Amino acid sequence: MKTHGMVAAFENPARLMEAARRTREAGYTRFDVYSPFPIHGMDAVMGEKRSPVGLIVGGMALVGAAVGFSLQTWVTTSAYPLVISGKPHFSWQAYIIITFALFVLFGAFSAVISMLRLNRLPRLHHPMFHSTLLERASDDGFLLAVEVDDARFDETATRDFFTSIGATDIELVRGE
Amino acid sequence: MSVNTTNVNTAPAVLEEAPLVQGGMSFGGITAKISGIVETRTPGLWWLLFGVALFGAMILFGSIGWLIWEGTGIWGLNNPVGWGWAIVNFVFWVGIGHAGTLISAILFLLRQKWRTAINRFAEAMTIVAVICAGIFPGIHVGRIWIAYYMFPVPNQMEVWPNFRSPLLWDVFAVGTYFTVSFLFWYVGLIPDLATFRDRATTRIRKAIFGVLALGWRWANRQWKHYELAYLMLAGLATPLVLSVHSVVSTDFATSLIPGWHTTIFPPYFVAGAIFSGFGMVLTLAIIARRVFHLENLITIDHFEKMNKIILVTGSMVGYAYIMEFFIAWYSGNIYEVFTFVNRGFGNYAWAYWIMFLCNVITPQLFWFRKFRRSIPIMFTLSIFVNIGMWFERFVITVTSLSRDFLPSSWDYYAPTAWDVLTFVGSFGLFFTLFLLFLRFLPMIAISEVKGVMPEADPHHYEHGDAHDAVEGRRDVRHGGAA
Prior knowledge:
The complex is a heterodimer.
Chain A: E1 3-10, H1 13-25, E2 31-34, H2 42-46, H3 53-79, H4 96-118, E3 142-147, H5 155-164, E4 169-174
Helix pairs in contact in A: 3-4
Chain B: H1 5-10, H2 27-39, H3 44-70, H4 85-96, H5 98-109, H6 119-140, H7 166-199, H8 203-212, H9 220-253, H10 265-291, H11 300-331, H12 334-345, H13 349-361, H14 369-372, H15 375-402, H16 417-440, H17 446-451, H18 473-476
C-alpha cells in the first residue's frame, strides 16, 4: 500500500500552533494542520498567503451587476420597448434594485464555488481519510500531517521529529 | 481614576460578560451534545408534532389545489380590496425570514459571538419562512401555470417582464434572498456535516453525510478559503437583509394609495421584519432549548440580548406608527388624514389596536431586566410579537384598499374559510420543514460554537495553566496585542 503521509496529534490549539511553526522551521513544505474550527493566527504561522476568494467575489459581483443592468436596458429599450407610466424607455433609476440583486447573487455563488474549487472540493474520497486520527479533528483533535511527497519526509526521521515537538499520537497514513 | 492602584492592573477595560458556553462543556461535550440530538431514536414527541405539522401542510396543499381548480374567487377578495390575506401572509412570512440572515450576517460582521448558539436554526427558520412566503404571491397570480412570466425567460411571444415594476423587483429580491440565505446556511453546515459523517455508525448514514459534507477534511489550507468565503457571504448578505424588506415595502410605497404612498416605508418595514423575525426565533428557541436540554449552550444571556433587539425594533416600529399619523396631519392631504383616522377609529380599528398593543406597548416590558430574563414573560411576548406583526400587515394592506379615494367604491373585506385554511396550512408547512431540520441536521453550529470558546484561542493557554504555555509563543502572536 502506498504511503500518503504521517499525522500527529497535539493537545490543544496552542501546542498545534507551536508544532506548525516548528515544522515549517524544520524545512517541511507539504504539511497541513487539521482542527475542528479555524485557529486564528495559524495562516501566519504556516506562511499561508491570503485567500484569493475576496478578489474573485468582488470581480464576479461586478459582472453580476453589469449583467443585471444591461439585461434590463436591452429589454426595455430594444427587445420589448413599452412606455409605462410615462417613463422613458431607458429609466435607469428603476433598474438599480435588480442590478443590486444580481450583484449579490453572482457574488454569493462565486464565493461558494471559488471556495470549493480552491479547496478541490467536492470530492468523495481523499487519502487522508485512511487516517484514524483524522476523525478526531471533527471532535476535539488538533492534528498536523506531513505528506509523503515532501522532500524532507522520512518515516523514522519525521516520526522522531513529531515526538520531539510534543505529539501525543503519531500515525502513518497508508492507502490511496 | 481608581485610588486603589492594585485594581488598575486587574480591572478589565470592557464589561465582564458571562461565558457563552456554560456548565464547563468541553469541545467533545459540545460535539456529543448536538450530534446526540439527531443520533438517538426519534422521540415520540417529534412524531406527534410532525404528524400535526404534516396535517397542516396537507391543508395548505389541499387549499392550493382547490384554488388552482376554482380560481382566486374562493378567497374573500373584492373590489377594491384586491390584495387580501395572501399578500398579508407573504409579507408576514418574509418578515419572519429576516432574523436568520440578520443573525448570521450582520451579527457576524459586528463580531457578536453570541450569535453562534442560535444562528444555525435561525437560518433554517429563515429558509423555511421564505419558502412559505414565496408560495403566496405565486398562487395569487391566479393562472399559476404562467407564473414563469415573472422571470426574464425568452418565450415564443417575445414578451418580457416589466422591470420598472416593484412586483418584479420583489421576484428578484426575494429570489436572491432565498438563494443567498441557503448558500450561507449550507456553507456553515459543511464542517458540521463532516462531523456527522465521521461519527456515523451505519454505512448509509456515512454515505449520505459523506456526500453532503463534500469531502471536508478540516485542513487549515481549507479553512483559509472557507473563512474568507463565509466572510464574503456575510458581507453580501448584510445589505441584502436590509434591502429585501425595503423592496417589499416598495410594492406599497410606489403606488398612490393613501397610507401606502410614503417614504417611511422601507426603514419601517425593515425594523418590523427584524422585530417579527426575532419574535419567531425566540418562540422556537425557547421550545427547542427546553425540549433538547440546551440550557448550557443557549443561555438566559442569549435571550436577554435578543429581547433587547426586540425592544429596540419594536420601539422603532412604534415610532413609525406615530410618525405616519403626524405626517398625515402635517401633509394637509385630506385623503391621508382620513386614511389614518380611519385606521385608528374606523371599521378595522380592532385590528389596528391589536397591532399597536402587541408591537408597541407589550415589548416595553423589556425595559426591565427582570422581564428580559424571565422565560414565561418572553415566551408570551414573542407570541404577541408574531400576532402583532401579522396584524400590522393586515392593517396596512386592507384598511387602505377598502377605503380609497372614491366612497362609491368602498367595501368591507372579510376572509373566507379558504383564506384561513391556507394561512393555517402555511404554518403546517413551516413546522413540517423545520421539524425535519431539527431531526436530521445539527441545530446548533458545532464548529462555530467551539470556535468562540476561550479554549479555542491559542493565547488562552498562556495564562493560568502555566504548564501549557509553549516556548517561543511570542512569535506566534499577531496584531501585537499584549
